[in-house]
């Protein structure tokens, strides 16, 4: 990241600038721009895949006690998580503008995630490429979604809203 400054929160004073250790004078905040949609999609894809690998490692450990913690994912997860969190970003803005409470927002996000997972799963199944199958879970729909994951999805939505999306929108890059 040589030659670039990154500021968090749209300010460029020395306390909030990260990524450039030079002693240059603080710049006018108008010389900083938000992350592009493409860069945010990249961040969201990586975040989603990392969370999936961590979740599957812990989930598998609970049943097998395999201390290798061999989480897993699929390359299909990259566009799936990137676009899901990107759409959650817009949904978050609308729900916050309507002053919806956190429990209401989390419920809406979780419903969205179920629709998103079902849609992607159906499309991938048609291609013979769906990497998950929840048929063994008691409360599943066509093996593509399971109600048993409602709480983990709500927690994931909370993390996405409160940390990933919020901070991705706050990051500013110095314009050249």
Question: What do you see in this structure?
Answer:
The chain has helices at 37-64, 77-97, 102-126, 150-170, and strands spanning 6-8, 17-18, 32-34, 140-141, 145-146, 171-174. The model is unreliable at 1-7 and 10-26 (pLDDT under 50). It is an alpha+beta fold and 176 residues long. Helices cover 54% and strands 9% of the residues. The chain has four helices and six strands. The strands form two sheets. Strands 2-1-6-3 form a four-stranded antiparallel β-sheet. Strands 4-5 form a two-stranded antiparallel sheet.
Keywords:
alpha+beta; 176 residues; two-stranded antiparallel ribbon
Q: Look at the helices and sheets and give the structural class.
A: alpha+beta
Tell me the total number of β-strands: 6
Gyration radius from CA atoms, angstroms: 19 Å
Please give the share of residues in helix.
Answer: 40-55%
H and E string? EEEHHHEEHE
Beta strand %? 5-15%
Strand order of the largest sheet: 2-1-6-3
The largest sheet, given as strand count, sense and whether it forms a barrel, is:
4 strands, antiparallel
Summarize the structure.
The chain is built from four helices and six strands; from the N terminus they run βββαααββαβ.
């Amino acid at each position: 990241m040589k030659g670039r400054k990154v500021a968090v929160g749209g300010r460029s004073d020395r306390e909030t600038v990260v990524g450039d250790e030079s002693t240059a004078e603080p710049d006018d905040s108008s010389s900083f721009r938000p992350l592009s949609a493409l860069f945010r999609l990249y961040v969201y894809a990586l975040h989603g895949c990392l969370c999936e690998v961590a979740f599957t490692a812990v989930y598998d450990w609970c049943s097998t006690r395999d201390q290798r913690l061999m989480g897993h994912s699929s390359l299909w997860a990259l566009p799936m998580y990137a676009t899901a969190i990107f759409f959650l970003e817009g949904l978050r803005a609308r729900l916050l503008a309507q002053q919806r409470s956190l429990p209401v927002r989390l419920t809406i996000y979780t419903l969205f995630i179920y629709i998103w997972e079902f849609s992607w799963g159906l499309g991938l199944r048609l291609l013979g490429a769906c990497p998950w199958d929840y048929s063994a879970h008691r409360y599943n729909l066509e093996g593509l979604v399971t109600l048993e994951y409602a709480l983990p999805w709500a927690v994931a939505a909370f993390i996405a809203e409160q940390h990933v999306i919020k901070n991705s929108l706050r990051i500013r890059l110095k314009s050249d």
